[in-house]
């Protein structure tokens, strides 16, 4: 029964222009209203309607007022449930969508923010093969998380979302389509194996200072230096206060990841290798820079620097 209803729904979407009115992407926020909410009886609703018809025929045939009254009450309840199912979706608003990070071939997590002026129950959201049910509090926002499969790197537009509900009795199914005009950025898939990048030899440009235990030198006093580090005897022979400096240079090589150094590979192979080098540099907590055609990212480290480099790789043509 469910499969037959889905086939009927797909046929209706192809044939009836009213149901395809909102197939084009829309800018956020998107609010549902009566012109874009559709209602059909569910399988259970069709069976319940047949049962009411049999009860009505029996009650009229035997002139049973009690059975007729029960049939009318059940019919009124089913009609009221249709209105409640409609009001469950009417006024629901999709305010914004946030996406996480994912490599091509993995699923990316989406966080959708819904809000409403009144409480809602048993709302369901379908996105590709992901399904989730949620409720809304009055004048509050609900953060709904779904996963979207990805196939290749770059900008991937979001497909249509189906918001539906069969609340409260399951007799009717109210649904609507949301098609936000938004895309998610998918990172490139790193190559499995390959050569490692070569860091340049240590030089003064890649030296940083660290706090050691042994005295390195004397320097002029700077605001904020602790008094216990002041060299009083040495200061007596100078016009300014002298401070014991315990900072010593420590080697910190920087990886220079350069698109131009991979001339023997095609573009996608270069991107895959640079993505693997970025993963290795991030795992080893190294400083690294990235040179790409039209974009040069200075040296840095940390999750934000890694995300910036991967975003740049993902957006290459």
UniProtKB/TrEMBL annotation:
Superkingdom of this protein's organism: Bacteria
DUF58 domain ranges (all copies): 218-251
Record has Phosphoprotein as a keyword: no
Pfam families assigned to the protein according to its UniProt record, in alphabetical order: DUF58 (PF01882)
Keyword Transmembrane helix: yes
PANTHER family: SLR1927 PROTEIN, SLR1927 PROTEIN-RELATED
Protein name per its UniProtKB record: DUF58 domain-containing protein
Source organism (scientific name): Rhodanobacter glycinis
């Amino acid at each position: 029964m469910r499969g037959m209803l889905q086939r009927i729904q797909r046929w209706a979407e192809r044939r009836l222009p009213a149901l395809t009115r909102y197939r084009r992407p829309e800018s956020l926020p998107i609010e549902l209203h009566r012109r874009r909410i559709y209602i059909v009886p569910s399988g259970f609703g069709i069976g319940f309607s047949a049962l009411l018809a049999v009860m009505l025929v029996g009650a009229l045939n035997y002139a049973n007022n009690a059975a007729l009254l029960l049939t009318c009450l059940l019919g009124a309840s089913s009609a009221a449930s249709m209105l409640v199912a409609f009001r469950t979706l009417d006024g629901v608003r999709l305010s914004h969508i946030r996406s996480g990070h994912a490599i091509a071939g993995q699923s990316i997590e989406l966080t959708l923010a819904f809000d409403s002026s009144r409480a809602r129950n048993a709302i369901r959201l379908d996105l590709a093969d992901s399904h989730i049910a949620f409720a809304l509090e009055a004048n509050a926002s609900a953060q709904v998380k779904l996963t979207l499969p990805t196939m290749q790197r770059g900008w991937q537009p979001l497909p249509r979302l189906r918001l539906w509900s069969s609340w409260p009795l399951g007799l009717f199914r109210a649904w609507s389509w949301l098609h936000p005009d938004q895309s998610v950025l998918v990172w490139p898939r790193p190559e499995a194996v390959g050569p490692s990048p070569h860091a340049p030899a240590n030089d003064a440009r890649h030296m940083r200072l660290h706090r050691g235990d042994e005295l390195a030198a004397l320097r002029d006093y700077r605001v904020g230096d602790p008094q216990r580090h002041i060299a009083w005897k040495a200061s007596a022979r100078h016009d300014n206060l002298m401070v014991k400096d315990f900072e010593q240079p420590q080697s910190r090589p920087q990886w220079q990841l350069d698109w131009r150094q991979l001339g023997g590979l095609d573009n996608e192979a270069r991107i895959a290798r640079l993505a693997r080098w970025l993963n290795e540099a991030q795992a080893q907590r190294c400083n690294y820079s990235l040179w790409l055609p039209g974009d040069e990212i200075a040296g840095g480290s940390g999750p934000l620097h890694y995300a910036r480099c991967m975003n740049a790789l993902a957006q290459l043509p």
